Amino acid sequence: MKKLMLGNAAAARGLYEAGCCLISSYPGTPSTEITEQAAQYPEIYCEWAPNEKVAMEVAFGAALAGKRAACVMKHVGVNVAADPLFTISYTGINAGMVICVADDAGMHSSQNEQDSRRYAIAAKLPMLEPADSQEACRFAKVAFELSEEYDTPVFLKMCTRISHSQSIVEIGARQEAPVRPYVKDIPKYVMVPGNARPRHPIVEERTRKLIDFAETTDLNREEMGEDTSVGIITSSTSYQYAREVFGEKASILKLGLVNPLPRQKILDFAAKVGKVIVLEELDPIIEEHCRALGLEVTGKDRMPRVGEFAQGMVAEKLRGQEKPWVSLDEPVPGRPPVLCAGCPHRGLFYTLAKHKVTVLGDIGCYTLAAYEPLYAIETCECMGASVSSIHGFNKALGQESEGKTVAVLGDSTFMHSGMTGLANIAYNQSNSTVIILDNSTTGMTGHQQNPTTGKNLRGDPAGKIDLETLCRAMGIRRVRVVDPYDLKATEEAVVEELAAQEPSVIITRRPCALLKTVEKHPPVAVDPEKCKGCKLCMRIGCPAISWKEKKAVVDPTQCVGCGVCEQMCSFDAFLHP
């Protein structure tokens, strides 16, 4: 049976058909849907882990126990999971283990666009890179086979365009993999130096075998066309662009196993063509490999190292076509991202901006408070960095910054990486105020559950961590909860905790306005007779409020009746119909 599928759904299907029994992940665009789609198969136990390091270790534990397992994350999640990653490469696995990672060239939803192939090279792990949904499904199955044959975790590398585009997939049946008995093997799995040293040569030998495999596998295939004046070496979405721009007559070496790369296969292909072009997004990894083989190639001298490619770009840079794409005569108005109407974070950030508080931010939808008109977020590096950073910030500046600086992060981010930073504040005693934005979900990646929501990935009842109790148990004596819709209470909490001479935590608790379980209130309206045109309501940046004919106007299709604007108006111009 054939089916039109998203790349992520196809990857999930491949994991299912391969007999995968467990998937542990942390949500991160563009990888999230792999786990969400896999959770629809009852044969696979799926979970959201607190972070990617935990997810990788859970998957390793399941593979060690003898059942095929996977973990899923976006490219920056591999940074978090790097510690176990490099050591699991040494130990190897028992049953198959697949690491699904999705890169984000163009940074559609990420703070950088690092190339995950670098991790595969550094950790000496095989990496498969599909170019469409069918390959995403097939490569997921092949990854398990390679994992067990070569005793290694295997990367399945997706990217935004493959993850979120659709193509036809041939659906197959699930093949249950036999459980591999766990056998105690201390020299293999206990990586003290005396055991790790003899494991390193095993890893190098494994790489040599995989290079031999790369020479013959159909994962890497020649597609020789009538035109041999130019040969294109490529992979992933770049393969699709090459086909669309150069047509069926082009000669292409399409690489599906991108680490380790073949040697003789590339040399043989180069000998059949006049000149070689390497087409790859981000880092010139294939290009550097070709040059190391002594080949003269064209690549990053014409194509950029940053951002996504597109057919038009490839046609312009490699074929010299001028403006091969359609352009609009009228400029498209800018649409900067904003917090949603009724977002529970808006009142807090308005309060922080009002008091000119320095706000060290974190990863989440609340990072949008960095934009106009709030301009409230001043830093954003990685998950949990706000809590660790405020400790260093205040230790460095002392009273100059204490009482004037806060860290903000979401409930899911706090569970991911914020707890250790808070432990450092409690232990080493900086006078720091941390604000946990508890909106009862993992908002930016599409409303996934987390350890504070009381529900698991499938929405069933699960263990629920009490944030107040947790913070107190970590040594924070001042912990208070406030409703961010209540501007007066929020302001009092911020002012009082900043004035305190000890570490403190404020938890702003209000569910995300987009959750289906949240009751919506009737939208408000503006009485034009009472509105004085002071524009104070515009300072919160609510997309439901606009400015027409020198008066505030509320869009009833967006307004959720949160009441924040009503509290700001001194003229009682906002009314409930």
Task: Please write out the topology.
Elements: E1 2-6, H1 7-17, E2 22-25, H2 32-38, E3 45-48, H3 52-65, E4 69-74, H4 75-91, E5 97-103, H5 117-123, E6 127-128, H6 133-150, E7 154-159, H7 160-163, E8 166-170, H8 186-189, H9 193-216, E9 220-223, E10 230-234, H10 236-246, E11 251-255, E12 257-259, H11 264-271, E13 275-279, H12 285-292, E14 297-298, H13 311-319, H14 346-354, E15 358-360, H15 385-397, E16 405-410, H16 411-428, E17 433-438, H17 467-473, E18 478-482, H18 487-499, E19 504-509, E20 525-526, E21 545-548, E22 551-554, H19 564-568, E23 574-575
Helix pairs in contact: 1-2, 1-6, 3-4, 10-13, 14-18, 15-16
The total of helices stands at 19
Number of DSSP-assigned strands: 23
β-strand amount: 15-25%
N- and C-termini, Cα separation: 54 Å
- Supply Rg: 27 Å
Helix percentage range: 25-40%
Largest sheet: 7 strands, mixed
Helix/strand class: alpha/beta
Shape: globular
- Spans with pLDDT under 50 lasting ≥5 residues? none
- Please give the order of strands in the largest beta sheet: 3-2-4-5-7-6-12
Mean pLDDT, all residues: 94
Describe the structure.
It is built from 19 helices and 23 strands. By secondary structure, it is α/β, with parallel strands linked by helices. Strand 10 (230-234), helix 10 (236-246) and strand 11 (251-255) form a beta-alpha-beta unit. The longest helix is centred in the middle third of the chain and has 24 residues, at 193-216.
Quick structural gist:
By secondary structure, the protein is an alpha/beta fold.
Features:
577 residues; alpha/beta; seven-stranded mixed beta sheet; five-stranded mixed beta sheet; 19 helices; 36% helix
